[in-house]
Amino acid sequence: LKKRSKKLLMKMMFVLQLRNQTIDGGFGSWTPWHPCSNEDALDGVSSCLCRSRSCDSPAPRCGGKTCAGPTIEVSNCSRNGGWTPWSSWGQCSTTCGTGFELRQRSCNNPSPRHGGRVCVGPTRDERFCNEGVSCPQPIFWTPWASWTKCSTECGGGVHSRVRSCENGNSCPGCALEYKACNLEACPEVKRNTPWTPWMPVNVTQGGARQEQRMRYMCRAHLADPHELQIGRRKVETRFCPNDGTVVCDTDSKWRTQSECVCACWSSWETWSSCSQSCAKGYRTRRRTCSGPEGKSAPVACRGSPVEYQDCNVQACPAHTKPLPKRSI
């Protein structure tokens, strides 16, 4: 019993001695960072920086605990950039006629890091579109042309200007435009025709007679004096007794009653053409006075050898001047 007790006591002392020598492990210092390679499922093999440490400061013994924590650290692993798939083509820049459309991609699949290579190539791509779709031609008015010359120099006239509808005939509005012009009053124009020759109107057998002559007087506000028309007629009358008391320049053409000459008018000639094409002109016709044996005796017949008549009294068409014009 004594021996057994002694052995048990010694064993207990040994256990106590061992317990006093148990040491838990501790990490030493990290080594300096150095280049290394790292491989993972996402980035593959990449270049990194690594460092390590050991559980030797102290090392665990006599049942001591090992170090808790990583023994290796990896940092700054490089990664090359990768393109995303191209996006869908965007809307064409035109609805007709040749345009262009665009698609894009990004270098973030994955993004480059820690010195990894960037993506090579363009981030956007363009191509033509609507090349076979022709555009309808626009329909529009051309600019107005210059105003035409005014239809009158004064007294109020009109002038016009035109434009045309390009690429069709559906332009809104009118192609012709009118405007009043030269509204100031025209100066007054006066003219007289030459006097006609003296003509007998009452003749006695002794050669005494009344004679008349006439002319037309014209007065109007006109831009062109040549547009004057025949107006009021003026008549002058004189008495020629044929006895020497009053001298008329036609006395030598008359004879005494005993030498009376039978004279008569010829038939009227045809009317001349009208002096204007519209807006009232005039025309004339003539006849001759013949004595015995067909000799001309212009002062032996009563009446005028010339007759005037109005013609073409209708108004002229718009913007048209009467033609031909005849000066008086």
Going by CATH, the homologous superfamily of the domain at 188-311 would be Thrombospondin type-1 (TSP1) repeat
Largest sheet: 4 strands, antiparallel
Helix content: under 10%
Residues in β-strands, percent? 25-35%
What form results from the Cα inertia axes?
rod-shaped
User: What is the third-level CATH name, the topology of the domain at 188-311?
Assistant: TSP-1 type 1 repeat
**What is the count of β-strands?**
17
**Mean pLDDT across residues:** 78
Per DSSP, the total helix count is: 1
Strand-and-helix sequence, N→C? Answer: HEEEEEEEEEEEEEEEEE
**Class by helix and strand content?**
mainly beta
Radius of gyration: 66 Å
What quaternary form is this? single chain
